[in-house]
Records
---
Amino acid sequence: MMKGKRKFLKLTAALLAAGVTGSVLLGCEKIEDDEGGGEEQGTDSGWAEKAGLDKDEPSDELYEKCVDEEEGKVVIYSISSRMAKVKASFEKDYDKMTMEVYDINANDMSTKLLTEYNSGIRTADVVHSKEQTGDYMINFFDKGILLNYQPESIFGDVKEEYLEDMTPLYFETDWWFYNEDVYDDTPITNWWDVTKPEMKGNFVLQNPIGTVSYMTVFTTMVEHADEMAEAYKECYGEEIELADDEPTAAHAWMKRTMNNDPVIFDSNNEVIQSVGEGSESSLIGYSPSSKYREKADKGWNIEAKPLDMEPASGVAFMNFVAVVNEAPHPNGAKLLIRYLMGGEDGNGAGIQPFNTIGGWPVRPETKKAEGNVPLEDMTLWMINYDYVYKNLQDVQDYWYKFR
Amino acid sequence: MANSEQVEFSRKRRFKNRVKNVVQNPYNIMVLISVLLMIYLIVVPLGQMIKQTFTLAEQDAARIAGAKPGQFSFYYWKRVLVGSISDKMLWIPLKNSLIIAVFTSIFGVTLGSLFAWLMVRSDLPLKKFFSLALIVPYMLPSWCKAMAWLTIFKNDRVGGAQGFLGYLGMQTPNWLAYGPFAIITVLVIHYYAYAYLLVSAALSSINSELEEMGEILGASKARILTKITFPLVLPAILSALIMTFSKAMGTFGVPSILGLKIGYYTISTTMYNSIQNGQEKVAFVISLILIAIAALTVLLNQMAIGSRKSYSTIGGKGSRSNPIRLGKWRTVITVILFIFVILAVVVPIIILLYQSLMLEPGNYSFDNLTLHYWVGESVPTIDQGEPGIFKNPQFLKYVGNTVKLVVLTSIFATIFGQLIGYINSRGRNKASGKLVEQLVFIPYLIPSIAFGSMYLALFATAKKVEMFGYRVTLVPSLYGTFLILVLIAVVKNMPFASRAGTSNMLQISTELEEAAMIENAGFMTRFFRIVFPLSKGGMISGFMLVFISIMKELDLLVILMTPSQQTLPYMAYAYTTENLLQLSSAVTIVMFVLVFFVYWFANTFTDADITKGF
């Protein structure tokens, strides 16, 4: 009898254990009447107002609030490793602040952020990313997940058109780089140059499958296919003849480029390294213009001549900063954005890491980096987000077909 | 009349007793709980994944006339299998992956089995040293070895600083530096460890009397090897083949570093790209195909081994093994083994260490050495002001994350592994035992990256249903919690852990439990007083296996990690992609030292032996 009783107790214990495990995983709650439905992620404009995103408090006042109310902390997700430099100077200028920086790959940022947001997690206060396909505009700003903070004292003189959808930190583009120890002048002045026999196996790209920004460039190229046809004529001296599997001159460029044995890398850091490190590399590589800084930072022998490029040197990408809806440290977020924009006078330490050759801050007060090509002088295609959003997949498939 | 009533009564009672027996038997309860858990954590996610491949996503619905998002569609399967780009997306990468996997498993298993035989059966000198050295490659992430390969062999195709051979004036051909040859070589020196571990375990369990008997009967050494030893360890060799094959099919890091540069794609790099550019469903289709291939090989294996599956009980206890003398070959083999250890173990580690000390990458001279990347304060001109790792507060945080994750995962995986091992061993001939064994094996077949995105899809947002006036959370929102990382790591490592548990439990004879049962000991008493103490050694071995594998895990967790939960492998990989090679090498060395120290500690101070985990 004793045995039976003990067994029964154990059985109960086992069932209880199962129950606990189960409820950890399942969990149930009584349905309350008229519940608000916590899941929908509607715009909570109330929060933005409460956080004072429409106010224009001076930085010193925000600093005090940060220390008093938010334990002096601010968290940023950034696609740029240069944010580490901002952290160093920010914590020096505001010595009671801690700035946590998470460097996230540009390709992962949007998925990570959206998943985290929809799961109800609020870690980041500020996000710094790059708009490429309209993804951020449609899936974040329009839905109120990311919010703009554009105080008059900082953004007063910035061009209206830049401020319509997002808050720009700076503009960036991509350039064809070459090694200045190997070439006296740029070996590439036309996109069609990479299809020439002498360039076979001699140019590097970051894998465009999986790198949205290059697919954006190619999609924009398709949109401007007639310009590509003209550039062909300039390069080869004759009209382009399209094969059956080349719907436009831009497609022809993609196919012929793939057939010319490009060297493909996983990251654009490898691209710029392969071009500039040492004095022997004859490779040319397409890489973000801001990588020009490696010339000073790492002593690499890179050079670019974007003004000579036909039909255009690339597309202009906007790097934006935004406050995350319901951010845990709204005052910290505001303080950091002001700091990143160069502070009250536009020339503070926050903007400097981005104010390099190949980067174009948007405030006219900011003194431009010496030797930088003015943004207006380059022939740049502007991204048609609508077009890119709709056609990127087709262009990607086409690239896939010939890789 | 009374008689028939009695019969009726006793029949009823027998039935009642039977039901009671089933319900009260702890074995059955354990089976029930584990089956339910596994259905929830393995079968449901897999089912979700399959369902996803037939459901149109919003951005794709726009590309098909008249289609609505969320509707049933063969779009993704068609796209992968017969679409205009399916050659590039599936068939060519699949062919490449198969080539890599076949050669890697053949060479890796041959090498590993040879080592195992030498270590267990022969009179090889310095066994203690070799037994540690031969495990080391398994402690380094495979992509580190690919980086080391490039450091030596890279040629001017990829520009930049020269590789070490280039520095010495030798230009390596492309086929040597990149592509299938390089990938297979690197994978072989990584994955031979599986065969080594499995076959050593099998060899140690064979009674050497069998071989001695052959010797007495006048059989030659070669004959003994081929006719006695080999057939006995064949099941272990076949399992090693399968493990290596499916690991090599799914591996991402190595083919990405060594293949991409000459346009050599494998199915895993293609799948990773698909996830990266938001084509998750395409990636799911590809991984389902991968799972099918892996499942097929497992099936073939089971057909080949058939009833001999329970190899680990062969021979029985009390064997005294007489090492086979290598004779004049002893020195030659020792030297060859030494060279192998130097090439596969010492060189990659030295390269990593040296890389972490080079102020300027690519400059191999001694005055270029610095400790900046270890203990230096932030200098704005070096690496965007990233400080040395020990001066970086985030590094310490990530070490904390890693240790927390690894310890929790290993503990849970070991406990569940032993429990499932208990079910497997006691239920060998029951349908329930077999079901559990099959279920627990599924995560092994799913490539890590796909497994990660599967869990992401399932646990990102809570899924609730309304029932009887209650809102029941079927799936809680776990993204961003530490729990999901532990959960996925435990589930993914369950095949290993339960394997270790099974072989552990099989060694504990049921006689002991039966004897205790006669003495009226209940299940819990039996488990904690007999089974548990006897299985401690095997548990620590199982723990080590999981520990090492999670310590370097990247693919599985990368999608699920929120930025504040990053771990050391992620940090190392992120540094690599940011071109901060010195920092990434330093982090990798820390990872390695952690694993090595824990392993060495367990090996020295407990009776754990990682080979016993298999």
---
Amino acid sequence: MIVADKKPMEEIIEQVKDYRKLLIAGCNECVTVCEAGGKKEVGILASALRMYFMNQGIKADIDEITLERQCDHEYLEEIRNNIDKYDAVLSLACGVGVQFLAEKYLSTPVYPGVNTCFMGVTEERGVWSERCQGCGQCLLGKTAGICPISRCAKRVMNGPCGGSSNGSCEINKELDCAWQLIITRLKELGRLDDYETLMPIKDWSTERAGGPRKVVREDVRQ
Amino acid sequence: MNYPNSIRIVRMPCTGKVDVLHMLRAFEKGADGVYIVGCMEGDCRFNNGNLRARKRVEQARRILNAVGVEGERIEMFNLSSGEGPRFAEIATEMTERVMALGPNPLKEGKKKMAA
């Protein structure tokens, strides 16, 4: 899932303090799972902003909605008939949702309510960590299911660097060395010979180095 | 055993059921202070309900501070069901704290809005 973190309340207030009719739009997908922008967070933020405006003696209307997704046309269409009622929208979706909402409703300012962080997993409730950088050419089959792109600080492709020590990365002792994990797992799988195979130079053009990316699938396109 | 009659008790099955939103809504609706009374830490029938409640109280306090309502107006207490006198003591302590802080500042804001 896409992992996001809540923006500080002060930053959110600064963004929306001049508006009087505000829609807070949550998203029922990734940001709900990582407890940053789901229905509950929308309710809490709406209550907090109502109190902020009330405290300032300002009358403000703050409505709440949580869409199934903000990264698909069909769900964003649900607010088409109401969007003009609002001075601004505060979207608690990831950066993708915020942008898609802004693209769709050109005359309404849209503000982000979360900081979008990475694609990752829930290690335990309250702890999320990165697992994928969307490099566009998945090599997990060669690395025993552990990604050296997203989990190695240097993104090296052929074994650990000199900073690997007792299974930890030099940038942080709490951080596992991805290559140590890969070698251990290859050993467990009886595939240590794979480690001897030199990886070819990676084509980074399918990653961000090649500019904004697009997937076009003619087989499913309408 | 007496405690201040300004206290309104809301019964919950466990403090773990108390949500941040419940606490915020109480202030939004004009409560001058809110405190959560849970079982002793380590004695929760549902293992960690009171520990979760404490974290939620802390979260609510941070939000209240950010929107200009004094965070001291919210507090979490732990005591066992046999400690009636302590319950009364806490009620008095919170009442005195809230009296010193004065009314919920949102009430003043509401008056301004109405004017």
